[in-house]
TrEMBL record:
Pfam families from the UniProt entry: CoA_trans
Alphabetized UniProt keyword annotations: Transferase
SUPFAM superfamilies recorded: NagB/RpiA/CoA transferase-like
Coiled-coil region: none
SMART domains per the UniProt record, alphabetical: CoA_trans
InterPro entries cross-referenced by the UniProt entry: 3-oxoacid_CoA-transf_A (IPR012792), CoA_trans_fam_I (IPR004165), NagB/RpiA_transferase-like (IPR037171)
NCBIfam families on file: pcaI_scoA_fam
Species per Swiss-Prot/TrEMBL record: Halioxenophilus aromaticivorans
Name assigned to this protein: CoA transferase subunit A
Tree of life domain: Bacteria
GO MF entry, a single one: CoA-transferase activity
Lineage: Bacteria, Pseudomonadati, Pseudomonadota, Gammaproteobacteria, Alteromonadales
Length: 233
C-alpha cells in the first residue's frame, strides 16, 4: 500500500499526540454517531484540562460522559446538555466551564473553522445572553452578531465506511456533526464500521474527502440507544 494509507491498527496509535489542555472536536448527536472507541481511549490515557466541542456530553457512564468521571474535561462548548446528571453537578459546583452555543451556530463554527473562515455573522442569539459583548452589524435592516469559528487540536469522528486513503461515508442521521468536525481538527481521527480498498467507494457519495483525515481505524461499536420508547399494547 502507498504512503497515502492512513489506517492505524490500535487506538493508542489513533490518539497518539493527545496531551493535557488540548481542544477536541467530537462528532455525534446524543449517542448517535459518536466515536466510542476514541472517547474510551481518551479516558484510558487520563489526559486532563480538555476543552471538548460537541453537541452534547453523552450520558452518565457512556459517550463523552465517561470523561467527566475523572474530571478530564475543563470546558464544554455545546448546544445541549440535558441528559447527564454528573455534568449538571460539575457545572453547578464550578468544576466545569460551559459555553452554551445555538446548535446551528455550533455546526457553522466548525464548518467555518475547517474552511479557514475566522468568523461569521448570524442573527441567531442577537438580543439574548448568547449575543452579549459580541460585535453586531446590521444587514438589510436586520441585526446580526459576529461569531468566531472553531478549530481543534484533534477531531474525533465516527463514520460508516472509509477507504485506506481516508475518504469517508456516513450513514443516515449518524452523519450529524461529524462532517463539520472532521474538517476542523489539526489531527482528524475517523473510526468506522468498515474499511475498504481505494476505488471501492463511489466518489459521488463521499461525505468527507481524505484530504481532511489523518488516521482511520476500524472500531467496534455498542451503538447504545439514548432514549428507548416502545408502544404499549
Amino acid at each position: 500500500m502507498s504512503g497515502f494509507d492512513k489506517v492505524v491498527n490500535s487506538y493508542e496509535e489513533a490518539m497518539a499526540g493527545l496531551t493535557d489542555d488540548m481542544t477536541i472536536l467530537a462528532g455525534g448527536f446524543g449517542l448517535c454517531g459518536i466515536p466510542e472507541g476514541c472517547i474510551s481511549q481518551i479516558k484510558k490515557m487520563g489526559v486532563k484540562g480538555l476543552t471538548i466541542v460537541s453537541n452534547n456530553c453523552g450520558v452518565d457512564g457512556f459517550g463523552l460522559g465517561i470523561l467527566l468521571e475523572d474530571k478530564q474535561i475543563k470546558k464544554m462548548i455545546s448546544s445541549y446538555v440535558g441528559e447527564n446528571a454528573l455534568f449538571e453537578k460539575q457545572l453547578l459546583s464550578g468544576e466545569l466551564e460551559v459555553e452554551l452555543t445555538p446548535q446551528g451556530t455550533l455546526a457553522e463554527k466548525m464548518r467555518a473553522g475547517g474552511a479557514g473562515i475566522p468568523a461569521f455573522y448570524t442573527a441567531t442569539g442577537y438580543g439574548t445572553p448568547v449575543g452579549e459583548n459580541k460585535e453586531t452589524r446590521e444587514f438589510n435592516g436586520r441585526p446580526y452578531i459576529l461569531e468566531d469559528s472553531i478549530t481543534g487540536d484533534f477531531a474525533i469522528v465516527k463514520g460508516w465506511k472509509a477507504d485506506r486513503y481516508g475518504n469517508v461515508i456516513y450513514r443516515n442521521t449518524a452523519q450529524n456533526f461529524n462532517p463539520m468536525a472532521a474538517t476542523a481538527g489539526k489531527i482528524t481521527v475517523v473510526e468506522v464500521e468498515e474499511i475498504v480498498e481505494p476505488g471501492e467507494l463511489d466518489p459521488n457519495y463521499i461525505h468527507t474527502p481524505g484530504i481532511y483525515v489523518n488516521r482511520v481505524i476500524k472500531g467496534d461499536f455498542e451503538k447504545r440507544i439514548e432514549q428507548r420508547t416502545v408502544r404499549e399494547g
